[in-house]
Write a structure and sequence with these properties.
homodimer, alpha+beta, Creatine Kinase, Chain A, domain 2, 2 domains, 8-stranded antiparallel sheet
């Protein structure tokens, strides 16, 4: 992984599906938006300010035990493929990369400490975005992890804070706690039983929102929904987390009920859908990313329903991450044209399935 | 097979793919249209005439060595499922069955002799339709077989014949030799390379025509084309057969070239298509007939291209016949509603593939 070769598996510990309810909740993410006092927010900052912020963060993290053992990676010093790999692992945002085709802005950096579920973006929309990424539904634990980082960094330099509003951020929607918690949920049962619309509407009524696999503005593919809180103001972090936990628990119950309904009322159609997806994943010689995600969705449902007991969710998670373009190019050691990429993707899928004992076309 | 239990495999010897070029030419059929002198053609015949024709045929075949060892089956005495099985095996026509939902007309019968590649329809459009059905491209042999039956029956009763026009038939297009030869061809290569239009146009220019899997008026599915002669008049049987043989040979060459082009110029797309079809056939839990035929087409191409060396064409032919509704109902011992039928079809496909060593979802 180029410059990241010291930490080639960074950000991947959630793949092991070890967390609670990980057949439905792939991962939990909690991030805190923070800004250093006395510096303009990144969007208005001059190069000098941005570099100064970066310098102070570099200094600060050397004293933060929670971020020990890692490094600060300045994005423009990384190769384009490495940057895209960080994006595909959700360790950096598209914004931090400077958008498609652009170079990252001066001072844009990511801190990757020794513990692979933590990361800090520097000079994104805010000076600091502290993030924890864990397997399954672990909102409280993820929050405690970023809270510890926040405590330590707050000791290293004063943070922009207003006694009435709370933490100050670039975008007003983040003012207050600066906390955004999101869980990546697989809601295939609710989609197939056509209950999803009702459930999503319910989410928005209790202050939550949803997005596709790649966050804001991305489409929902493969029945994977990122559910997150919409407001960060006027409530404590604990209340936010507790509220969200309660709602997500309800969505999980709805999803489990929907899956039971599928098995009870449409077993033939459901099994057919799942086995067809399995057959295509195991035998296709070319897979576009979106098709792969859709097939994985059906197979994932099959594993959860115990129709495909041989497969582990871990392997399906692995396919989701390593089946992305930059990861495939990294494995190939070169850039891949779209048709090549689809062929490499299909080949990777067969390889991972074969390691699970699935017969494939190889 | 109800009343046909004495000959449950009747009409299936072509499945073994033993004939020449049987990877492209599934089967050869030759039929002769004949009428008994002194009786109105079936469309105009009264019940009495039709029964009289049947009686004379029954008498006549007892003296025909070529038809020895079988029986005469009056269609209205057979169960509806048995009649549909005969249709699915191409031993009788839809016309002879009286059309969908109707009972067969009086005197409508089929002679199934001891040799399973021969059959005679009685009181269809003509009094007699003698048919031979063989594996692969064997026009001459098929013609000789029906010619021998024709000779013997012509000795048993005088046939309607005009010294200038030849044999007289209900429909003017059959007058003369009364011979229709047809070969069932799998032209997937020409379809995929988009050369098929040119080839089919060429066929019509040399007096041949094409139809779908189920003859006149049926659509082409799965790239299976029935190629047959259009004219029966003004040329000898030998000339007709020889001409057709030459043209079909050319089509086979075109198809082989097209397959070579696919392997050379689009190997990835071709392999992907073939392996996906294989994966779906092996894992689907529900298959509509038309989808099955389309998937079989791709897999058949794969076997011919040696991409799926483990599979035999025999098994693919077997699936085509036994995957039809009446055959599935026969195996189930009861009528099947459409969704059940699709499930039974998928199950049969998996069973036959499993017998070839293919891993399936069972």
């Amino acid at each position: 992984m180029d410059e990241l070769s010291l930490a080639p598996d960074y950000g991947l510990s959630w793949l092991d599906a070890s967390g609670p309810a990980s057949d439905i909740v792939l991962s939990t993410r909690v991030r805190l938006a923070r800004n250093l006092q006395g510096y303009p927010f990144p969007a208005r900052a001059r190069v000098h300010d941005r570099l100064e912020v970066l310098r102070r963060v570099e200094e600060g993290i050397t004293r933060a035990a929670s971020l020990a053992g890692g490094g600060v990676y300045v994005l423009k010093d990384l190769g384009p493929r490495t940057r895209r790999i960080l994006l595909e692992r959700r360790l950096v945002s598209r914004d931090l990369l400077g958008g498609i085709g652009n170079a990252p802005a001066p001072g844009a950096a990511v801190v990757l400490p020794g513990r692979d579920h933590l990361s800090v973006m520097v000079n994104e929309e805010d000076h600091l975005r502290l993030q924890a990424l864990l397997s399954g539904l672990r909102l409280r634990e993820a929050w405690r992890l970023v809270d510890a980082v926040d405590e330590e960094l707050g000791g290293a330099f004063p943070l922009a804070y207003h006694p009435e509003f709370g933490f100050l951020t670039s975008c007003p929607t983040n003012v207050g706690t600066g906390l955004r918690a999101s869980v990546l949920m697989h809601l295939a049962g609710l989609v197939l039983t056509k209950e999803i619309g009702r459930v999503l509407k319910g989410l928005t009524q209790v202050g939550l929102t949803f997005r596709g696999l790649y966050g804001e503005g991305s489409e929902v593919v493969g029945n994977f929904f990122q559910v997150s809180n919409q407001t960060t103001l006027g409530t404590s972090e604990e209340d936010l987390i507790e509220h969200m936990e309660r709602v997500v628990d309800q969505v999980i119950q709805h999803e489990r009920q929907a899956r039971a309904v599928l098995l009870r009322e449409a077993p033939a159609v459901t099994e057919d859908k799942i086995w067809r997806a399995y057959g295509l994943l195991a035998y296709a010689r070319s897979l576009a990313f979106e098709e792969m995600i859709n097939l994985l969705s059906a197979v994932r449902l099959g594993v959860s329903l115990k129709l495909l007991p041989r497969l582990r969710v871990y392997s399906l998670n692995k396919i989701m991450i390593y089946g992305q373009q930059a990861h495939l190019e990294q494995a190939a050691g070169r850039e891949l044209l779209p048709p090549e990429c689809d062929a490499h993707r299909a080949s990777l899928v067969r390889k991972i399935l074969a390691s699970e004992g699935v017969p494939t076309s190889d």
